[in-house]
Amino acid sequence: MSSPTDHFANERTFLAWVRTGIALIAFGFVVAKFAIFLQILKDSTTIGSGTVVYGEVMILLGAMTIVYGTYSYVLSDRQLWKDHYKPRIRDNIVFSALVIIVVLIMSLLLIL
Question: Where do the domains of the chain lie?
Answer without folding.
Answer: 4-111
